[in-house]
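Exercise 7. Given the components listed, write out the predicted structure of the assembled complex. Treat all entries as one system.
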Amino acid sequence: MSQASAAELCTLLVRDIYGEVSSKVTSILLERGRLPLGQICQHTQLPSKTVKQTLVVLIQQHLVVHFTHIEGGSPVTYYECNWAQAYELLHAGRIIRVTEERFGSDGALIASNMLQLGHARVSDFLAAYGISTKKARKARDAESTAAIEADAPITSVETLKEVMMNMLKERFLVEVKQHHMQSKTDVENNVRAELVQKLRKNHTSELKLMKEVNSLVKAKLKEMEIGDVSEKSGLKRKAASAGGRAKKRKKVSIYDEEEEELDWEIDENLVLRINHEKFRVIFRNQELVSLAEQRLGKATAQVYGEFLKRIEPKIFRCRDNVGEEEETDDDDKPQKTIKLSCLELSRNFNRDINLEGSIALPPKEVKAKARKRSYEDSDDDMTIRNGSSKPNGKSRHGSNESDGESEEEDEWAEEDGDMDPDAAEKRKRMTLIKQHLMLLAEDSYRFLTNEGNRGMGEWSVNYKELGKTMRNLELEKIVEERFESTGTRLLRIIKDKGKLDEKQIANIALLKQNQIRAVLSGLHECGHIELQEVPKALPPQATRCYFLWFFDEQRANSLLLSDVYKAMSRNIQRAMVEKEKRKHLIEKSERSDVKANYEEYMTKNEKRELEIWRSREERLLAQLMRLDRIVMILRDY
Amino acid sequence: MSRGGFGRGRGGFSGAGRGGPFSNDDLKPDYSVTELFPPQAPPVQSALSKEERLMVARWRGQREKVHNGPMYTVMGRKRGMEDPFNDIARYSAKYRKVERRAPKLDARPYVAEFFPAELYATLGIDEKTASTKTKTLLISALDTLNPLDELADADEDAAAAAAEAGEKKDADAEDAAEEDEEEDHFSDDEDDDYNAERYFESEGEVEDYGDDGDDGGDYY
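Answer.
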């Protein structure tokens, strides 16, 4: 169903990025499943040398996984396409953008290179850096523009290392292990076999053994997938003073102090790659923030963004607690909820976000506030030392806030006994933040869930529900586009009421039956709703049947997903056709002599035509990214 | 309403056949042939936001880098499939971007344990030679990121963007107008010293394009 269109899309993506030969191998692997080398050659009709080389490229990029069995005494290696990874090729732009925002252009450089390289050993990466930058810097010196120097990204290997370490800490990069290069089933079989062998002695009954093994396998697989999450994973203690290193450090004196403080450094033997899971979490957060912005306005969305950013390090995967199996064991779920209190949030809240006046206070509280202000002012005049903390606290108590907070209030009072205007400002800010958080919790989309009153209220995010909401919204948007408001209305009714007869739907929708019939069948055709027939009497006849419309979320989503994949494929194909039309022109513009003196060699017409092509491609790609957003919502969140 | 019509029809024209019920209505059936694909306004993409443009620029940049890197390969043309007009050897081929038929694998070090044993020979890994140590990764320098930043800067002034948008529209309109002209322009009229296909084309156009050719032809 969605398989075929997804496979087509992945083939096209690989073709667009890694060229025709790679895409041919990929498409064969997608079409036929896992194959040994000989059969790949046979199906692709390529010489085995080429296939081998291509496989190296694909394995390096994690697009193909492999596994070696012992079959009939000799090892046979099977290759399989990892289509999810192929889809991730589409995210390169997003990933680089996000790292750019978080880690500046240094981070973007690392991310971009890591994406190009697939995976790389840290030492190799650093060594390569030394060489390629020398050239780059020379080039820059030749240009000798002072302006560029200001944001000249990486100045030394040390800085590079540091940025890399931070990226590793934030899990933007993760270590590659052997099991990443194998397909999931193989990994699972391996783990299972190992466990069975280990546990066999303890059990007499096969059933019990299997039960235990099954539960252990699940846990182990999850652990393997997420990887080492401890703080210091992938880092090692710095060597006290190795001769060569010390020399190096002297050269870059600026970073000396920081380095010594850190005391940890990245393990150079590590093999790293981009952690796509992590980026998906970040994309989801972005999506949620933009949704909040539509619903509740900019300031609240910003607060929400900060909140999500704070809990982000604790979330490793998007569908961590959404997995099908895990719904059964509910008991360990409550522990998993990740909470964050308002107090903690406000501690390192971004100062650039202006919350002043973002929420209109009800008139009563404004008065109370005004009074408070006057207190503070007078206190400030007299003694800044131990002034406003007490009265301020009291006035807060007066304006009936919940009891749990009173302790927190005291805590606060102790913490900054000297309540200078700065602290008062901080407190005011905190109240504002809390109000925003409450707004988010009270919204019908339930952006946040209240978890208690500790630290001025604790909050958590129910990603599962929010994901569902987003999926629903996306589906409704598409239905609205296709069938206008009638379609959405009918869809909502069916969703709300369950299985319904056409007549009942017409009654509820306050429309005539013949008005809704076409829309309903249209919805059915697009796969948004389903039809079930229930015979009235035993020999089932079409005339004597109830026809009940119903909504099956999973099916509707998967059908829609396949549609979107197809649209994306067409989009890429269109771009390819457009490119083919201008093949000669593009070739010319890429010639080295033309590049050197572009203005002179390109005619006006050609330049214009190239400009048209570029803007067209941009629009097509932007559309691709928009579709990608829908895919992520439907599939990943 | 319809029921009333039905009754009346029956009463008035008993035995008038099946046209009865509709006889009094002012329905005028349209017997003209309906179009198979009636014109429909295609949905129009909304304008790109700045963030989107940046993202696309980054993606394109990344793709460009991969294309220039050692991993990108194109299929070689089969023997006998050459285009007799465009595949002739030219001086300008010297400048043309080189496209690989096979990936350049010996350029970088690999983490051998992640590859199956049967590919080791392809990777250039032998148990004995320690030459792999000397290889270095190929990392694209920072300069390649810069052009994209320029795009961002250009994007920042809204005025420029608006102007650009307007231009685009114009360009598109013009483009639609010269659709067929474009065809000739790119398939045959390469700027080369001798364009064989042009000889076979209608004579009238040769002169027109001759100018164009001269413009570009000087630099050889």
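Discussion: Residues 101-161 of chain B form one domain. The helical segments of chain B are 2-12, 50-68, 120-123, 146-156, 158-177, 179-187, 196-200, 203-217.
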